[in-house]
Give the backbone structure.
Amino acid sequence: MAAAMVIIGVVITYMALFLDKEPYHTSILSGHVWVQELVNRHPDQIKNELGMIKYVFHAFGQELQACRLHDSKYRTLDEQLAIFL
């Protein structure tokens, strides 16, 4: 009887960890608007999503502009940078 309770506990724990997942990417925005939301929200969010802080993201974008990279027909430079990262 005790073994059955342990097995049930393990199954419930497994379900809680691997089957009942909470969505992480919940923004309905995409493209340039998503990048702007990311830049203008909590500083930890841009670090988690892109792997760099806001200051570095902007500095990197300015450095790319200095190398003559620019917005394309359908994507801004910030979007292109976010996709790359």
